[in-house]
Amino acid sequence: MRGMTTQLKRIGILTGGGDCPGLNAVIRAVAKAAMGGGLEVMGIEDGFLGLIENRLRRLTYNDVSGILTVGGTILGSCNKANPAKFATQDKQGRWVTRDVRDQVVEHYYQAQLDALVVIGGDGTMSGAHDLIERGLRIVGVPKTIDNDLWGTEITFGHDTAVATASDALDKVHTTASSHHRVMVVELMGRYAGWLALHAGIASGADIILIPEIPFDIDAVAHRCLERSKVGKRFTIIAAGEGARPVGGEQFVDHIVADSPDPIRLGGVAKWVAEQVETISRLEGRYIVLGHIQRGGTPTAHDRILATKFGYYAFELLMAAQFNRLVVQQNGQLGSVPIADVARKVRTIPPGHPLIAAGRAVNTSFGDE
Ligand code: F6P
Q1: Which atom of ligand 1 approaches the CA of 291 most closely?
Q2: Which of 108, 153, 190, 75 lies closest to 325, judged by CA?
Q3: What confidence tens digit (pLDDT) does each residue in 220-241 have?
Q4: Which of 37, 147, 233, 307 falls between 20 and 30 A from 87, CA-CA?
Q5: 368 lies in a domain?
Q6: Does residue 44 form part of some domain?
Q7: Which of 258, 276, 294 is the last residue of a domain?
Q8: Which residues pair with 194 in a beta bridge?
Q9: How far is the CA of 188 from the centre of ligand 1 (A)?
């Protein structure tokens, strides 16, 4: 990497937002590279919450050794604590938000940090952007099972979640076939359908429902009946949690009042299974795979990606390329300004080749 180099002595590292497999692999890569370069590494506990509450600890080589294959994050994470809009309850129990960035800046300088590596998704990068405005030097690393971070074609954690979701869809196949049922599996992914699309294609789901293509419930039921008529007496539907019927809303499971991104989606699989049963008279069942998709050991692909991303983040720090997010575009590592990524979501573009490939193998997207 070209550019000026800088003399850093101590960096901080944190993991923010929902966890995913590969976080520890990134921590390991950044910390080992930094320690090898003579830097001290401070681990910040529970994402930005640790910076707000001044919970930092010095990481030793042993702390970051033996964690490559371990899911979750040794630092802990938090998907609520955005320093610019930190939610606390007042005496009446009402949630109020405060800007606590001054506190964060104070703790950053108190700990004598020269820069911060922030591993997170879109919410975390928005939080990072708010801190960059206050003068913090940050390098971002893109994580999320949803693969919805703008600016990068892949985030680590996604491949493992796809493998877990595909395994679940494969297993559902046999029981659906035995009982001649329509089985709807609800997958995570928020407002983007990457997880449902990739897992659905990988496991040969008969119908894939994604937020980017609103579905027609009559067309979904019709497809199930069609399959029955030609002797395929079961149907597997992979439904992204953000999928919605034509003209309808996304299904909201609950609201997390103290989260900067409070909506938690959920309910589409139940609704689709019930509607299909009513329309087609075929027996329907639904499964919500949930947080299982965020657990487990990272796949080899995610371990490699996390290690590449972590090392590239270290290189950006050494080249004084601050306030940038490590990305992969066209298979090449690079970086983009965190400012460009904040508050954006990368959904599946219309005409994505995998949708065409899916249609070619007779997969329905519920729209025809
Ligand atoms: O962004 C990751 C993710 O797992 C989404 O796919 C899901 O909608 C959300 O987080 C769930 O959040 P929580 O862990 O707060 O329930």
Answers
A1: 4
A2: 153
A3: 999 999 999 999 999 999 999 9
A4: 147
A5: no
A6: yes
A7: 294
A8: none
A9: 7
**Whole-angstrom Cα distance, residue 59 to residue 75?**
10
Q: Tell me: the pLDDT tens digits for 137-183? A: 999 999 999 999 999 999 999 999 999 999 999 999 999 999 999 99
The predicted structure's pLDDT at residue 3: 56
Q: Do residues 124 and 138 lie in contact, with contact meaning Cβ atoms separated by under 8 Å?
A: no
Regarding whether 15 and 144 lie in a shared domain, the answer is yes
Judge if 245 and 325 occupy the same domain: no
pLDDT above 70: residue 343: yes
Residues 29 and 139 in one domain: yes
Query: Which one of 46, 146, 148, 302 is the catalytic residue?
Result: 146
Query: Which residues in the chain belong to E strands, given as ranges?
Result: 10-15, 40-44, 56-58, 86-89, 95-98, 115-120, 138-142, 182-187, 207-209, 235-240, 252-255, 263-265, 284-288, 324-329, 332-337
Of 145, 198, 252, the residue with max ligand 1 atoms within 8 A of its CB, to mutate for a pocket test, comes to 145
Closest CA to 306 of 143, 132, 85, 81: 143
Q: Which residues of 15-50 are buried (b: 16+ CB within 10 A; e: fewer)?
A: bbbbbbbbbbbbbbbbbbbbeeeebbbbbbbbbbbb
pLDDT single digits (tens) 32-79: 999 999 999 999 999 999 999 999 999 999 999 999 999 999 999 999
Residue 5 phi, psi dihedral angles, 5° rounding: -105, 160
Q: Quick check: is 146 catalytic? A: yes
Confidence of residue 250 (pLDDT cuts 50, 70, 90): very high
CATH number at residue 290: 3.40.50.460
Q: Which domain holds residue 332?
A: 10-156+298-341
Task: Output the CA angle 200-204-205, nearest 5 degrees.
Answer: 55
Same-domain check for residues 38 and 134: yes
Give me the chain's average pLDDT, please: 96
**Residues 192-210 pLDDT 10s:** 999 999 999 999 999 999 9
